[in-house]
Amino acid sequence: MERHEAREWTHDDASGSVRAPSADDDKYRRGVLGVVTGSNEYPGAAVLSVEAAHRTGVGMVRYVGPRAPRALVLARRPETVPGRGRVQAWLIGSGIAADRRTFLLLGELTHALSSELPVVLDAGALDLVGQRTGPTVITPHAGELQRLFAARETTGPTEHPAEDPAAWATAAAHELGVAVLLKGAVTHVADPSGNAYTVTAPTHWLASAGTGDVLGGILGALAATHAAEILDDPTVLTKLAATAAYLHGQAAVAASRAVGGGPIVALDIAAALPAAAGGLLAPTD
Ligand SMILES: NC(=O)C1=CN([C@@H]2O[C@H](COP(=O)(O)OP(=O)(O)OC[C@H]3O[C@@H](n4cnc5c(N)ncnc54)[C@H](OP(=O)(O)O)[C@@H]3O)[C@@H](O)[C@H]2O)[C@@H](O)CC1
Ligand SMILES: Nc1ncnc2c1ncn2[C@@H]1O[C@H](COP(=O)(O)OP(=O)(O)O)[C@@H](O)[C@H]1O
C-alpha cells in the first residue's frame, strides 16, 4: 500500500471553507444537513451535534431521531426542523450504541446511507460503513477504529491505532474505501486517493465528553454547505474533514482563553464556533 507523508493542515488550507450567504441564497440553497444522532441512552450527543452544526453555519438542520433526544434538541435549538425531508448531506451515528439500535433508528441510518449524498459517519453507525452509497467520511476515535477492524476480522498495521495512528488512518481509508478522520490529540485524516493530513489540537482541554459529537456537527455543516463540490470530487470531503478538526481546535482554544486558559465543556466549543468560523470565511464576489 502506498503511504504518503501526512501534512499538517494550516489556517491557509482551512481558509475560505466557510461560506457566507449571498443575496441569491435562501435556507435551502445554503445547504440542509440531515442528522441522525442521539438515542435514549445518549440524548445529549444529539443536542451537541445539532448545536455545533447550527453554529458552524448551515441553512437548516433536520433532526431525525427518537422522541427523547428530539425533545432536547428542540428545547435547546428550536430552529431545528424535526423529521425527514430533503437534505444535502447527513451526519449519523454519534450518541448511538450499535448494539442497542431500535428497528426504527436502524431504518433512519440506512435511509441516510442509501441517499448517495455525502455522509459523516460516527460512533454507533460505523459498522454500517459498507452500506454507503455516497462520499463518506468516518470519524472514529482509536478505540472505535480498533473495534471496526476487529469486527471485520482485519488486521491493522499495529496492535492498537494509538501506536501508529497515521498508518491506521491510511489503512482504514484503503480497507473501507472512505475518508477517515481518526480523532486524538493529533487528528489524522486520510482518504483512498492517498491524501493524508494531520491536525494538531491547540489545547488538550478538548479531551472531555461530547467534544467528538461537536466535531461531527461541524463536519456535517461543512459537508452540507459544500455538497455539490463533494459529489463532483470526493477528496473535497477529506479536506473539509481536516478543516473541521482545525475549526474545532480553534473554537476550543478561544473558549478556553475566554476563561483564562481554564477548562471548557463541549457546548463552550459550540458557542465559540461562529467567531472561529468567521476567521475562515470564503471571499465574496
Ligand atoms: N453527552 C453524550 O451524550 C455523550 C455521548 N457519547 C456517545 O457515547 C457513545 C460511546 O462513546 P465512547 O467513546 O464514550 O465509548 P466507546 O466508543 O464505547 O469507547 C470505549 C472504549 O474505547 C476506548 N477508547 C475510547 N476513547 C478512546 C480514545 N480516544 N483513544 C483510544 N481508545 C479509546 C477505550 O478502551 P480502552 O482503551 O480503555 O481499552 C474505551 O473504554 C458514543 O455513541 C458517543 O457518541 C460520548 O460522545 C460522550 C458524550
Ligand atoms: N489529549 C487530547 N488533546 C487534544 N484533543 C483531544 C485529546 N483527546 C481527544 N481529543 C479530541 O477530543 C475529541 C474527543 O472525541 P471523542 O473521542 O469522540 O469523544 P466523545 O465521544 O466523548 O465526544 C476529538 O475531537 C479528539 O480529537
TrEMBL record:
Its EC number is 4.2.1.136. Keywords: ATP-binding, Lyase, NAD, NADP, Nucleotide-binding. Residues 10-280 form the YjeF C-terminal domain. It is an enzyme of class 4 (lyase). Residues 1-14 have a biased composition (Basic and acidic residues). The keyword ATP-binding applies. It comes from the Bacteria. Pfam families: Carb_kinase. Belongs to the NnrD/CARKD family. This is ADP-dependent (S)-NAD(P)H-hydrate dehydratase.
